[in-house]
């Protein structure tokens, strides 16, 4: 844009020296807010782009203020008593009064229809607030736009939180052209080409630039500093050096304010604005891995907060100063820090010599959550517990990593892992649960109760991943340790896992007998997790042996115990089993009702194993009811879920599956069967339960036919394999190409079709085939 005239924008308004990137939504919000409110504050952490946004917004609304748009730069003030004088100077008033006050300033502004932009208010916030309040009260046509890390807290203030620039999501396959659709990527490319004119965004640099933008949280200042470094470093080298971002991100615009020349100087400015207690909580809160809530801060950080101030007011102060960013997740208020803010706090904590003690407090808090999970899991609040653990998952990882790395902390790590045994399963994170067992066993090598607990859980996780030989080896060691220690409870748990191993080895008689012999003792204990696992095991073994009477009895017992406690997750397994038995007895209607109830119970969880069994069962039931098209869709859905869960069907269930498939293929014909199967297979896993229950899927954008770039023959072939549910690795193996080549083909298909998910490819392909038929 051209530099504005003095008549339009007074106060030495700075002309843009670099292009303005993105912020369309935020600009619209500022315009709307200024139309409705007389005081609008742009609030956000340092370097997020508040000043540039305010500058551009003021330029866009300048014609609505015939009295002028005036920038009042407050960053250089060290004495807040000079705020009124700064406004006088910006307005160009020549009157040399001995002392300017908000009241005398208001006399000068009078009836002018004027927009004042108070830039960088945070360090003089009290004086800025008093000045703004007086001016607004006495000058009816005045409006004020502020940029600040802390709201002014003046009546009528409209607060707009300025977010970081949009970044490509972690793990997303974004083409070089697509990267520029994200504000952070567009800014990096713009500044990179200004620093190095020959910079090219291509297949090599694109993913690296996306990773840089994510690592820097989309903060414009940090991105600009990183892009400026291209004068001496490649994008790959920049990404590698971001582990030391404060030492690395220096330089940049020498004409900028000193605090904007380096990332450290910018955050030093914020740190200096905080009280002593706010600084202490900032440093201690850096041990949280991701977002966290007030309860977490109280548990981990409150030892440094005096009782008269209270942790609540300290957290509120950090939110006001944009150190903590407030958000809501599943109806709960959570806080997070930008990564640069967190790393700064971590550096302060480390230098204080208190890092280990604070991490231990964080570990204790996570341990308390795991113990709560253990004691309350089989009860009416199961869904809420699961939701809470999902929110705290990153923090649990950090706590377990501390337990693995810090000497003397293995016992706490074992308690956390054991307390979350069912959580790993229900959340679809069996590999992670097994990972922590393995890492802790590397530290706990002696024959102790801790190692015994880890061995049992690791064997159980290995079986859930159908690695029977690995689980058998772990069980053998567990039995040796148990005999050495003589721990009777552990022997009960070993037998349940041993029965599970036998059933996966197709020894259903042995599996049933092994688990049945410990059920009576488990019924008398409070070990509901192992009791319910044992009942599920004997139920399915009885089904596989064709003993419907015994299977039904065990499933009924499991359902009764679950209902008695208000438990949903294990009850879903009992409902599936009862549905299976009803179907085997020829009662398809009752079977469908029971299996759908099981699926409804599973909607709060990520148990793909049980969900896959239910989808399969519904396909068989639906086929027997004479609905082949729906059955084919459900077979495709079950295929997708099994691809997520990774486990094969047991032989009897494989027999039912093959029988259903033959019936449906015969009824529909090959082409119609393939189309219906692909329709089900294209459903995203997160929508699978709703789809199985007949709920409407969320609409996904489909490109207009004329806008779709035609796929090459090879891309058509690969799109077909994607529609079959193949992973990139499976596609590579099938076509005898490298995995990287397969990934590139899939990404090109997504770009050509304008899609963001593999499921959309499958749905589009099905639609194309429907058009060909018609």
TrEMBL record:
Coiled coil: none
Species of provenance: Saccharopolyspora ipomoeae
Pfam families from the UniProt entry: GerE, HTH_77, NB-ARC
PANTHER family named in the record: HTH-TYPE TRANSCRIPTIONAL REGULATOR RV0890C-RELATED, REGULATOR-RELATED
Domain of life: Bacteria
PROSITE patterns noted in UniProt: HTH_LUXR_2 (PS50043)
Organism lineage string: Bacteria, Bacillati, Actinomycetota, Actinomycetes, Pseudonocardiales
Record-annotated HTH luxR-type domain positions: 704-769
Protein name: LuxR C-terminal-related transcriptional regulator
């Amino acid at each position: 844009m051209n530099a504005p005239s003095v008549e339009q924008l007074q106060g030495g308004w700075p002309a843009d020296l670099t292009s303005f990137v993105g912020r369309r939504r935020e600009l619209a919000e500022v315009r709307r807010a200024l139309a409705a409110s007389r005081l609008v504050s742009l609030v956000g952490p340092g370097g997020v782009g508040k000043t540039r946004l305010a500058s551009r917004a003021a330029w866009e609304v300048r014609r609505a203020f015939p009295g002028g748009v005036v920038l009042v730069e407050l960053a250089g003030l060290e004495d807040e008593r000079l705020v009124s004088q700064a406004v006088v100077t910006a307005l160009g008033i020549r009157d040399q009064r001995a002392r300017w006050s908000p009241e005398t300033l208001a006399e000068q502004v009078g009836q002018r229809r004027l927009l004042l932009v108070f830039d960088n208010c945070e360090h003089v916030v009290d004086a800025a607030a008093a000045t703004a309040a007086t001016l607004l009260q006495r000058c009816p046509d005045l409006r004020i736009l502020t940029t600040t890390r802390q709201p002014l807290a003046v009546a009528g203030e409209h607060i707009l939180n300025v977010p970081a620039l949009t970044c490509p999501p972690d793990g997303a396959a974004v083409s070089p052209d697509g990267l520029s659709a994200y504000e952070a990527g567009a800014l990096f490319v713009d500044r990179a080409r200004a620093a190095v004119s020959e910079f090219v965004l291509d297949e090599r640099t694109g993913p690296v630039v996306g990773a840089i933008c994510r690592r820097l949280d989309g903060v414009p200042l940090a991105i600009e500093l990183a892009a400026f470094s291209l004068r001496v470093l490649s994008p790959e080298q920049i990404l590698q050096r971001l582990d030391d971002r404060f030492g690395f991100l220096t330089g940049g615009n020498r004409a900028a304010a000193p605090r904007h020349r380096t990332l450290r100087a910018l955050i030093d400015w914020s740190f200096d604005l905080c009280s002593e207690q706010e600084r202490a909580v900032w440093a201690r809160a850096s041990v949280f891995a991701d977002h966290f809530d007030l309860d977490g801060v109280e548990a981990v950080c409150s030892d440094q907060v005096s009782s008269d101030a209270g942790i609540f007011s300290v957290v509120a102060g950090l939110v006001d100063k944009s150190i903590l960013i407030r958000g809501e997740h599943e109806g709960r208020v959570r806080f997070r820090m930008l990564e640069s803010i967190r790393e700064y706090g971590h550096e302060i904590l480390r230098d204080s010599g208190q890092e280990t003690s604070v991490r231990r407090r964080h570990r204790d808090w996570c341990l308390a959550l795991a113990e709560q999970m253990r004691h309350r899991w089989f009860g009416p609040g199961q869904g809420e517990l699961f939701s809470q653990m999902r929110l705290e998952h990153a923090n649990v990882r950090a706590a377990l990593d501390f337990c693995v790395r810090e000497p003397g902390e293995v016992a706490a790590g074992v308690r956390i892992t054991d307390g979350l045994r069912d959580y790993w399963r229900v959340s679809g994170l069996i590999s992670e649960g097994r990972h922590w067992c393995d890492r802790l066993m590397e530290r706990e090598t002696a024959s102790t109760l801790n190692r015994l607990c880890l061995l049992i859980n690791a064997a159980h996780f290995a079986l859930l991943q159908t690695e029977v030989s690995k689980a058998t080896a772990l069980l053998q060691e567990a039995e040796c340790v148990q005999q050495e220690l003589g721990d009777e409870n552990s022997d009960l748990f070993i037998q349940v896992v041993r029965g599970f191993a036998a059933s996966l080895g197709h020894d259903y008689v042995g599996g049933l007998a092994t688990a049945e012999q410990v059920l009576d003792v488990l019924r008398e204990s409070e070990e509901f997790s192992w009791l319910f696992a044992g009942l599920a095991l004997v139920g399915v073994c009885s089904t596989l042996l064709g003993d419907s009477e015994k299977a039904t009895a065990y499933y009924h017992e499991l359902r009764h115990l679950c209902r008695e406690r208000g438990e949903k997750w294990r009850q879903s397994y009992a409902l599936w089993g009862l549905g299976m038995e009803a179907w085997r007895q020829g009662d398809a209607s009752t079977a469908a009702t029971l299996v759908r109830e099981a699926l409804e119970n599973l909607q709060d969880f990520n148990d793909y194993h049980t969900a896959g069994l239910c989808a399969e069962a519904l396909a068989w039931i639906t086929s027997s009811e004479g609905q082949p098209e729906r059955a084919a869709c459900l077979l495709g859905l079950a295929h997708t879920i099994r691809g997520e869960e990774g486990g094969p069907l047991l032989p009897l269930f494989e027999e039912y599956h093959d029988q259903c498939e033959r019936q449906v293929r015969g009824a529909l014909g090959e082409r119609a069967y393939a189309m219906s199967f692909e329709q089900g297979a294209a459903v995203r896993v997160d929508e699978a339960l709703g789809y199985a229950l007949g709920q409407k899927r969320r609409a996904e954008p489909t490109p207009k036919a004329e806008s779709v770039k035609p796929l090459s023959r090879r891309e058509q072939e690969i799109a077909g394999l994607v529609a079959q549910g193949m992973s990139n690795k499976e596609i590579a193996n099938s076509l005898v190409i490298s995995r990287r080549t397969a990934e590139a083909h899939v990404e090109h298909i997504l770009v050509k079709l304008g899609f963001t998910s593999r499921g959309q490819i499958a749905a589009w392909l099905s639609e194309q085939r429907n058009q060909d038929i018609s």
